[in-house]
Write a structure and sequence with these properties.
The chain has helices spanning about 5-35, 70-80, 95-100, 115-125, 150-165, 175-190, 205-210, 235-240, 255-260, and strands spanning about 45, 50-55, 170-175, 195, 220, 245, 270. It is an alpha/beta fold and about 270 residues long.
């Protein structure tokens, strides 16, 4: 047998070797995730040589947030930008448990009815539906399904061209920065003027939204334009049929789809989606 001292030394070397190999396996796992599961202009964008996370629900940049466990560093290595120091998580709490720490809870949103069961189950809160100020006269059309993405995007561009010819403003909702840029390139090829609102161009948001309700103006946007955006329409636009909403695909969350649809037909205005 080994002497106690030798045994301790051997144990230490084994643990050290195990630790080094475990760290390498973890690093490789995170690199595989970065390359295979995380796509640029979908889950994140690269701005000013920094990897910035895009919020899936709102389409906005999550400033100051970083992926944990070395994943952010793996994405930085993939994108060939400066690798920043890793962040450490000292404590975590779910949003549901955080909200339950308050004695009184209430909220208001335009898309609560579909999640009424969840509000009752988690917070024991009832959802009360308040009727709209004026009846909704928006024309909500059925989904159009195409065999291929190419056919779908060509149909979207044609629909935009037809609506612009009638003098109607168009808001096109996409689920990622990548799709918004693809449609922008297609519209440029067709020589159709348009504005793009996504996580990369968020500083121009106020100017783009101010223009969005004017006759024949085309705005391509990610989920950013779906929440809390009030697009003002001119009388000329209302006579032409109001704001037209086109969603390029269904979002994972139906609330996001309802938020986008709700940009048209506000305060009893005409419109379509």
């Amino acid at each position: 047998g080994l002497a106690t001292e030798e045994e301790a030394k051997l144990k230490e070397e084994l643990f050290k070797d195990f630790s080094i190999k475990s760290e390498r396996i973890h690093t490789l796992n995170q690199l595989l995730k970065a390359y295979a599961l995380f796509e640029k202009d979908i889950q994140y964008v690269v701005m000013d040589n920094k990897v910035m996370i895009v919020d899936e629900q709102t389409g906005r940049i999550m400033d100051g947030r970083r992926y944990s466990d070395g994943l952010h560093q793996a994405i930085e290595a993939k994108e060939n930008v400066k690798i920043e120091a890793a962040t450490q998580t000292f404590a975590t709490i779910t949003l549901q448990n955080y909200f339950r720490m308050y004695r009184k809870l209430s909220g208001m949103t335009g898309t609560a009815v579909t999640e009424a069961g969840e509000f009752w189950e988690i917070y024991k809160l009832d959802v009360v539906e308040i009727p709209t100020n004026k009846p909704i006269v928006r024309d909500d059309q059925e989904d159009k399904v195409y065999k291929t993405a190419r056919e779908k995007y060509n149909a979207v561009i044609q629909e935009i061209a037809d609506l612009v010819a009638k003098g109607r403003p168009v808001l096109v909702g996409t689920t990622s920065v990548e799709i918004s840029e693809l449609l922008s390139r297609m519209l440029t090829m067709r020589k159709i003027d348009h504005n793009v609102l996504n996580a990369k161009l968020h500083k121009k948001e106020a100017d783009i939204v101010a223009e969005a309700g004017k006759p024949g103006v085309v705005t391509i946007a990610t989920n950013m334009a779906g929440r809390g955006t009030d697009i003002k329409l001119t009388n000329e636009v209302l006579k032409a049929g109001g704001l037209a909403i086109i969603g390029t695909e269904r979002h994972d969350s139906r609330r996001v789809d309802r938020q986008l649809r709700g940009r048209a037909g506000r305060q009893g205005d005409v419109g379509s989606s």
